[in-house]
């Protein structure tokens, strides 16, 4: 019986040598290339990406063409180069197979006629000077598999390593290395959030693991070395300068534009300005349900002038029909709609899983606004809270839930306590990560797909965390409760400063401190007069010498001086900070051993300095 002939020994892509082991690998858009030495890999990379030459490889196998290329002339006056007639024949067979599958239908992206549409709708296009976009779109020099540095969209303070997954027009699809494939995002090539490899190090910073890093955080340095070793770096010429920002919001209601669909960011659609509010505009998508509309800043990089897509080579989705966004296009043109979708998926190198998302049914979406002025309770770090974005979403309920809970965990003083309070665990595929006691742990979130269920879960969690109920809300509103407490605190502070300036020295040294407030808290001696007009429930008295205060006395005194410091009450109880310990604290100690940020530590240091003269 004759068996299958043995496979030939693999050869080096560059020198064609098969004697040495192929220990060096370079990922490219047509698969990985293997090499016998660093020199071969380096030479291949130099030839593969030359300045001002978009591609120097064979159109079939992607190998470097040595000598004269074999050319194939196309009907559109373009030519493809091949390294040999064998590759040419293979390519022609592939093209013939495509024609057999699709028949005589030519897969083209239909051009949307803006002129006719503007006449039919009796509308006008928003002027180009309203947009923060270049008049001529910059050239896209990125290729799939290229590496670069990018800001983590879910944690904008972190710069991470990213890989180019897809390219379309002047936009690129990115995936953060070390994260999963569920959080890919799109950026324009002239975005300031994109930097070449080595930029962060030159600026004295450090690359960070992405939010949701799938490995132990302590392993990130080694992961980074392995990821960048022999990687396909993006050339510095691929990074373009950002356009100028318009001086003012000049949009008007009813004007037409092209805008990114935030729920499906690979799509750019026909849209209208639905409303204008100061520096924000409301983008509505023509022919689609209102669930896809959103507010954005007038200088957003996700909005474009009419005709931008056709000029830049990016597909534009025409107006839909009220009802279903994912129905596949016009009811009487199913074939052309399927062709357009197939062409678009091919043009951006979408995986089958990503392309199948277009067939999904409509799911509810939501947005979460984070009120930085609200009380965040004893478990959360108020300084970290200020670093969070003001808005999460809009997006699918499950994804917004994941991002929201992950942010809450990341801002916690004691991560273990916060995760313990998350009683309602689920069995969905949506998970968050938490690192404490030197280990990274994964927590499953409940499967929530309805907006009502989402907010019920959030309200319960905020109550368990002792946070203000308005810390997370569906709309950006000023919290009346926290604002009132802040105003009361400012009045007390200002009055105390006034009395301290104009009061006599004798009146500032009483034998004891009188506490006169709605709820027990401490005041400084000079605040006695300011608090005398406040309704009382009976004064509480503290010893004159702060060294004699108990832990609760210290906490009550701090609460009265600055209500925002109330978030550290449990921290003072945990470390048993009484009067004597308080007077020994300094900002360095509080930051190093108590985990406080610089701002709160300086506030407390100033408070302690004001107490020390009493002991003299």
Automatic annotation (TrEMBL):
Positions annotated as MBT repeat: 112-210, 218-319
Cell compartments where the protein resides: Nucleus
One GO CC term on file: nucleus
Segments for region (Disordered): 319-338, 496-515, 520-540
Entry keywords, A to Z: Nucleus, Repeat, Repressor, Transcription, Transcription regulation
Highest taxon in the source lineage: Eukaryota
The protein, known as: Polycomb protein Scm isoform X1
Lineage: Eukaryota, Metazoa, Ecdysozoa, Arthropoda, Hexapoda
